[in-house]
Amino acid sequence: MGARVLVLWANGESSNLGVRVLGDGAAALARRAWGNDSTVDFQSFEFGPLGTQLSGKIVLRGLLTGSRALSRRMSMYDAVIDTGAGDSFTDIYGLKRLAIMYYTRHVAKRAGVPVVLGPQTIGPFKSFLGRAAAKRTLRDARTVMARDSTSATFAAELGRDVDCLATDVVFSLPTPPESSEATSDVVLNVSGLLWSTDTHGSSAAYQELTRQVIQGCLAANRRVTLMAHVIDNPSVDNDLQAIRPLIAEFGDAVEVFIPKELSEVRSFISGSNIVIGARMHACLNALSLGKPAIPLAYSRKFAPLLADIGWPYTIELNSDSAIADRVLALISDDRLLAEAKQVRDNANSRLENAASHLADQVQV
Q: Is the pTM value of this prediction over 0.90?
């Protein structure tokens, strides 16, 4: 009989398909480790199987009243896999978010449930409280996995060597059948977050870069499909916020693909020639299917992960120059397809090792 597993900070209903990747990938990793008949539930910050939202109010209530209700719910599980929301095991998103995640892990440990830090980005931690919480989290975890060597270095500096150097769980997902001929050519994932806000750099510069890439592809007689990886939702983090003005500008010169499910986007990418994306998981979806990807990185989570599995083509939006020219040169580089297939093999090997490690370290 398989295990009963709770995956934290991911779910299969998010408008962000990268969050769905984390959930489905962690579930696939759990089933590799503990059997295909394992039951996997998902709890993020929203209401879920723990019977509550996970919010600042829940943390305060637990600390002030000593309530064990959350602990009792947690005790129903054989193991907890904490995804760290991919890149949220850090204090750069604020101490409130870090405190909620820390408290939830603490409740699991108090309930006697082994906590696994699944493959994720670790750090950076710039504040005293952030570093203190990170040290305690690393110390208390049954096992710690990182998805890149830079994260492993952060963990070591905090006093805990990672137990397993893995990679992103996207490589655990099943591969859809690949057609003999590509049904799409250049797939361009445009980030609504980068288009609409200056949180990660100049939105005006990103908009201009996007136009230059589209114009350059069309001038080279390449077909361009605009693809959403965060689908329509009320927040500013919505790729349709970028796609709609581009449709108005380029009209029938570009095609558009708006998926509804993770499986749809993976099937679509499997029939493409190359993906250009500012969403990391749009690029990782491509590489996990053996398709080349050109990541347009806005944070440090991209390059270390991709370099570790043998993909050196990350372009840094905030530091690299002549970006459009570099992108256009790469989409014409015939070597990338063979290298992408090798990357997929490298990553799959890492996750096989991660599943074996998990089965050895957490016996359920």
A: yes
